[in-house]
Amino acid sequence: MSDTLTSEIKASLGWLFQDALDLSTVSDSSQLSYHQTLVDGANADQADKIWHDVRTLASGVHEDLTLSALATLLFGSIGAITLAKVKAILLINTATTAGEELIIGGATSNEWQGPFMAAGSKLSVPADSCLLLMNKKAGWAVTPGSADRLRIANAGAGTITYKIAVLGTSA
Question: How many C-beta neighbours within 10 Å does residue 164 have?
């Protein structure tokens, strides 16, 4: 029995910017959109593995997600998703209070650098915000046991719940 995956990645930013003048109002209205579909497979423009979860971190706590062995419960069976490459990550910080921030990256051992430029590099995801990282052509390599840990840390004063989805390939 084989599985198949079709995935869709969308991001958009729309706006209506108006300047009220004496006799008229000038408007700038538009949208910048990105939309891609990846078919099942392990090549460019493809993905064959997905892992997703809702997780909670207490203040000052971090967790390291091992991308080469992401525990999952699917259709009643416990297993692990093993990623060789990461094509996209979407992380949503569901906290609503300013200052409740998640820090992504910077694992102290077996750090996965993926989209980060250097070891120890980190990104911030403030409250009520999201982060989408994508490399649909080549993907970012995951090396089991040496470069496979993605750190998520709670830098806020309260408990933070976040949602995460990681799209990738098995080869």
Answer: 20
Q: What is the 3-state secondary structure (H, E, C) of the chain?
A: CCCCCCEEEEEEEEEEEEEECCCCEEEEEEEEEEEEEEECCCCCCECCEEEEEEEEECCCCEEEEECCCEEEEECCEEEEECCCEEEEEEEEECCCCCCCCEEECCCCCCECCCCCCCCCCCEEECCCEEEEEECCCCCEECECCCECEEEEEECCCCCEEEEEEEEEECC
Q: Are strands 77-81 and 123-125 parallel, antiparallel or unpaired?
A: unpaired
Amino acid code (one letter) for 108:
T
Q: What is the CATH number of the domain that holds 108?
A: 2.60.120.770
Tokens representing residue 67 in the block: 């991308």
Closest by alpha carbon to 142, among 90, 84, 87?
84
Domain assignment present for 1: no
CB of 36 within 8 A of CB of 9?
Answer: yes
Q: Is residue 127 part of a domain?
A: yes
pLDDT in tens, 76-130: 778 899 999 999 999 999 999 999 999 999 999 999 999 999 999 999 999 999 9
* 56 token code pair: 């909670």
